[in-house]
């Protein structure tokens, strides 16, 4: 839209009076398609762990620090105060947390909903709403909104896990509350690992859970996740995601965490996924293997321990170049939020046989 000097001056006057001209901004406010603030990005494991090791020397969990965690800040979110809203994407916060032997991360609860994926280390456990839940690498755990939770390490090595919360979403909505438990750890109300033992049968549930509840199962064991992937692997892989399963709440059939979805996917050897895009965003952690993901023509090479994000409406495809080894990708998403508001949409890439042309290779910060 062409602007005369007088019209431009009028726009400036509107701005000074905290008003705006719709005629000049309508296509910025009602976009033709989503224009995400976060950008495709990747963080290397070595960089994150280096900073976590430094934090281990500088602070003690439970003594002035509730948590020792380094969170991912998307460069596209970095200008938001405070701390880029903790945004790996516009809705999802992701971090790597470390707990040393003997430490206790004190109990608290908050409006933000949270989940954890155990990356490495033995001897860890958490308490969630009165249940002590042991965990080991590959396990997926949930602490839904307003549930008491604390963590401890009773082993002999540092334990590390991925945290994911909907911090940017709750900050934007201005709905976040936090409360601290009067003691370091909450009181135990049920036997240890109670919910996992109640669901040892897999796809059967106690009749008392016929009525929906927010967290009937707190721990999703790696061994069962692996069995699920093995079963799918007897068939042809999905052309976009390989073999992928999602964690569900057995009392509802919906996502295990009510506002954040989570999946584990296996890319078999020589898997070349086709490109597609969708409105929901993803945060990926490379649990095993190596490969690359192409996002909007840019190649992001990843290996075990790395993290990368796929913002809304970004073309993407996954590739595993290994001839012998699977690649395992754990991911979180905001699909439950998108579906709740009927925002979700997806599209397949139709050009070049479904594969993007690589125009650039992303260079990560190494330090």
UniProtKB/TrEMBL annotation:
The keyword Oxidoreductase applies. GO terms for molecular function: dioxygenase activity. Keywords: Dioxygenase, Oxidoreductase. Coiled coil: none annotated. It comes from the Bacteria. The keyword Oxidoreductase applies. This is Gentisate 1,2-dioxygenase. SUPFAM superfamilies: RmlC-like cupins. InterPro entries: Cupin_2, GDO-like, RmlC-like_jellyroll, RmlC_Cupin_sf. It comes from Brevibacillus centrosporus. Residues 96-163, 264-329 form the Cupin type-2 domain.
